[in-house]
Amino acid sequence: MENTTNNQYKVILYYCYSEIEKPDEFRDQHHLLCLDLNLRGRIIIASEGLNGTVSGSAKEVDEYMKTVKSDPRFADIEFKEELVPDHTFKKLHVRVKDEIVHSSLKEIDPTKKTGAYVEPDQLREMIKNQDDFVILDVRSNYEHKLGKFKNAVTLDIDNFRDFPDKINELEQYKGKKIVTYCTGGIKCEKASAYLLEQGFDNVHQLHGGIIKYGLEAEGEDFEGKCYVFDSRLAVDVNKVNPKVVSKCYVCDEPSDRMVNCANPTCNIHVPICEACGEEMEGACSVECKEHPEKRPYDGTGYYQKESNGYNPYKGFQRRNLLKEKKNQATT
């Protein structure tokens, strides 16, 4: 697609817990909207709400946000926006799932119970003043090893669904003020609610997550980079006192250059410095470098999943949907 907005694209991150009665039907309509606006990205739709990250020209992303917010169900949705030089996705995927973030906390409804918000500037002052509180990272290992808040408590989990299994490790913080955080805020909605359910009575969450903190509080005291779920893999957050906290998986030298192992059967997410990336051809080990299925390394360490016969209109007929929308408008 030719860029018509002064070489400015946008990538947005968002979520909204709000009931969607017919998620399959909504999925088709929403997919069509994204296609009409030339957007790419990943969107998850469930009966509990909407979760997505998409990229496109600034003009078309703005139109998308305006359209979504015009739906009363999503009037309060908050978009985290960043300017980027090009699309951060290669394709568009809009899927219906049981939850908008995979967890083992499906019974929790954040619209009824969740931790109180702490705004980015508030958290910045709390850290600066060394307030007595616990800042809890609810993300996975590969994410917090790349970057985290100074003095944050991290958990040894490979997936967010493992969070409840760590509740016993957090018992020592009962009675203290706890502020949870994640990338964009969505995991904290359920994580903070679960802590409240388990008897933690002073639980808060960073509103908008790390991304909003970087946009509004300059990312101060966030150490390292923030892992993101698009082709950039990792982004700078801290504009005040940045530091590298991760090490190259191969040579153990400081590096915050995130890579997916070029061996698709491994595909681990780890920091690999540029020199080791070239030497290992994007692989994390000699074994992976010599693997017969190893993918060609282009220097980025990002690999789009294979989608044989990819068709953005798969799953519904565009013409029938347009006809249905037209009929609804005239009745």
Q: Measured on Cα atoms, how large is the radius of gyration?
A: 21 Å
C-alpha geometry: globular
Number of domains: 3
User: Strand arrangement, largest sheet?
Assistant: 4-1-3-2-5
Q: What is the top-level CATH class of the largest domain?
A: Alpha Beta
CATH superfamily assignment of the largest domain?
Rhodanese-like domain
> What is the string of SSEs from the N terminus onward?
EHEEHEEEHEHEEHEHEEEEEHHH
CATH architecture of the largest domain: 3-Layer(aba) Sandwich
Helical coverage, percent range: 25-40%
Q: Outline the biggest β-sheet.
A: 5 strands, mixed
In round numbers, the mean pLDDT is: 92
CATH topology of the largest domain, by name, is Oxidized Rhodanese, domain 1
Helical segment tally? Answer: 9
**Pairing-aware structural class of the strands and helices?**
alpha/beta
| Poorly predicted tracts of residues | 1-6
Q: What fraction of the residues are assigned to beta strands by DSSP? A: 15-25%
How many strand segments?
A: 15
TL;DR?
About 25% of the residues lie in helices and about 20% in strands. The protein is an alpha/beta fold and about 325 residues long.
Can you give a write-up of this model?
The chain has three domains: 9-100, 2-Layer Sandwich (Alpha-Beta Plaits), CATH 3.30.70.100; 116-227, Rhodanese-like domain (Oxidized Rhodanese, domain 1, 3-Layer(aba) Sandwich), CATH 3.40.250; 247-303, no CATH class. Helix content is 25%, strand content 20%. It is built from nine helices and 15 strands. A hairpin with a 6-residue loop joins strand 12 (226-227) and strand 13. The longest helix is centred in the first third of the chain and has 14 residues, at 23-36. The radius of gyration is 21 Å and the shape is globular.
